[in-house]
Specification:
- The protein has eight helices and no strands.
- It is mainly alpha-helical.
């Protein structure tokens, strides 16, 4: 990334204000938050899901390819077989627990949640087997009930926020109202609020 004619070594610890300005310039130059929300509503409607990477149109296209049997695109067939195989494996696992496996990070748990939820939710949308949705829900609710997503090592928080955001979106129509509210509140409390506080200099990290 080129932002100056001079070479500078910047760190979040010593150059927080400058890096925040750079981030704002690149991250928010084209659309305001309100403009982005309106663009999403215009494209998907107020209550249409999924929206993140997967869409109903893409899911239907994948299903139509698989319906071709031996004539199915080989890459699509291979990827979907892997998704189903991994999802079947995850059915045999138990939901994650809050633990710093290396004594420092929640990242390994966050990564497990992200992998499981995205795979299981994708498998449900593609194959329609409700067991995948049930197991993804268990994973999301377990993570949503964690006391925090360990913002002291911020990648942990980012991974967990992404995991539940994808699961919330991809399973939106299957989840009941109470599930959606719990997951949404967890994303806001443990994810976005922590991120915004950190961005504003109200960090909880040490």
């Amino acid at each position: 990334m080129i932002y100056s004619k001079e070479e500078k070594n910047l760190s979040w610890g010593n150059n927080l204000d400058l890096l925040n300005k750079i981030f704002e310039a690149f991250g928010y130059d084209d659309l305001t938050g309100e403009e982005y929300i309106q663009a999403v509503y215009k494209k998907f409607g107020d209550d249409s899901h999924p929206r993140l990477l997967l869409t109903e149109e893409r899911i239907n296209w994948i299903k139509s390819e698989l319906a071709k049997g031996d004539a199915c695109d080989k890459v699509i067939a291979q990827v979907c077989a892997q998704i189903r195989g991994n999802a079947n494996g995850f059915l045999k696992t138990t939901p994650v627990k809050y633990e710093l496996r290396d004594g420092v990070r929640l990242l390994y748990v966050s990564a497990d949640v992200e992998t499981r939820v995205m795979c299981l939710a994708a498998a449900y949308n593609i194959f329609g087997d409700e067991r995948y949705a049930v197991r993804a829900r268990q994973e999301m609710l377990a993570a949503a009930n964690f006391p925090d997503w360990h913002p002291w090592h911020f990648l942990d928080t980012g991974n967990m926020t992404a995991a539940l955001a994808f699961g919330y979106d991809w399973l939106y129509d299957w989840l009941d109202k109470g599930d959606r509210e719990l997951i949404r509140n967890a994303i806001m409390e443990h994810g976005f609020t922590v991120i915004l506080n950190d961005f504003d200099g109200k960090t909880t990290r040490s």
